[in-house]
Amino acid sequence: MTDKIRVVMLGTPDFAVPTLKALMNAPTVEVVLVITQPDRPVGRKRQLTPSPIKQAAIEYGLPLLQPEKVSAADFVERLETYRPDVMVTAAYGQILSNRLLAVPRYGCLNVHASLLPRWRGAAPIHRAILAGDSETGVTIMKTVKELDAGPILGMQAVAIESSDTTGDLHDRLAEVGADLLVRLLPEYTAGRLVPSEQPEAGVTYAHRIVRKDEWIDLTNTVVQVHNHVRGLSPWPGAALLHGGQPIKLWRTALLPENSANDSLPEGSSGTVCMTNDGSVRLKCEDGWLEILEVQPSGKRKMSARDWFRGLRIDKTQFEPVEENG
Length: 325
Hints:
It is built from eight helices and 18 strands. The chain has helices at residues 17-25, 52-60, 73-80, 98-101, 124-130, 166-189, 222-231, 304-311, and strands at residues 5-11, 29-35, 40-42, 47-49, 64-65, 86-90, 108-112, 120-121, 135-142, 152-159, 205-206, 238-242, 245-253, 271-274, 280-284, 287-296, 302-303, 315-317. The chain is elongated and about 70 Å long.
C-alpha cells in the first residue's frame, strides 16, 4: 500500500493522547477524523469541559466529532464519508456496533492497557496493581463485539514496580501502547501481520472501580494494603474512617525487613503511631506499613507526619468500614 493509511481515532481521556500524537507523527498515517465523547460537566461548578483528546485534536487542527451515540445509524453514515482504512480506539468509552466496525477497510484496532486475556474491561491498570501483579503491558487487538476479546496483533510487557501507583503505570503504558500501535499498523494493513486469537485460558475481568472499592480492609496484610493505596492513586483514593469521617491514604511505603518497630506500642490492626524519627506507621494484619501522605475529609492532601502531629496524641485508631461497602 503506497498511500497513507487513513485513520479515524476514537478516544477520550489522557491515556488516548499519546496514541493520537504518535499517529500524527507517523509518516505512513493520515488522521482524517477524531471522535470523542461530548463535553461533560466537571468539578463543583459542573462546568462543561472538553476531553483531553479533544484538546489535542484542536491543537493539531484535526476534524472533530462528538456524537452522543457513536453507533447511531445517522452517525455511521456520516463516518462512511471519511473513507477510513482503520479506526483506532484508546479508552473511548462507548460500545461500537457491528455496523460501525464494518466501516473501515481493515477494521478497528484497540490499544488496551493489559496483557490480554488478563484484565479485560474498564479498569485494567487499577486492577493489576490491586491484585499485586508484578507485570502488565499493552495489547493491540482487533475490536469485536465481545468485550476486549478480539484477535491480537501484538503485545508488549511492562514491569510493575512495588512503588508504582496507577498514575505512574498509566503514563508508561500510554506511551508504550502508542509506540506499539504505530509500529504494527503498517505491517497489519500491508497484510504481513495476521492477528492471532486470544487463548481461552487466563481470562480475568477488570471491573470498573466503584465506591465500595475505596475502603481499605484492616484485616489485610501490609502488602495488600500498600497495593490498595497505590492501586487507587491518583483516583479515586483508598479510604479509611477516622473519628467517623473518611480519610484518604494517598501514599504508603513498604518497610525494610529489618526496620525497627521497638518504639511503637502494641496495637491491633488499624492502629496508627509515630516512631522516634517521625515516621507514621499503620498496623496491618502482619506488620507495620509507613504512611506518607493523607487527606482528611474536607481538607487538602498533607504529609502523614503533619496530620499525626496535629492530633497531639501518642497513637490513634482507624475504624473498620465494612458497613460502608
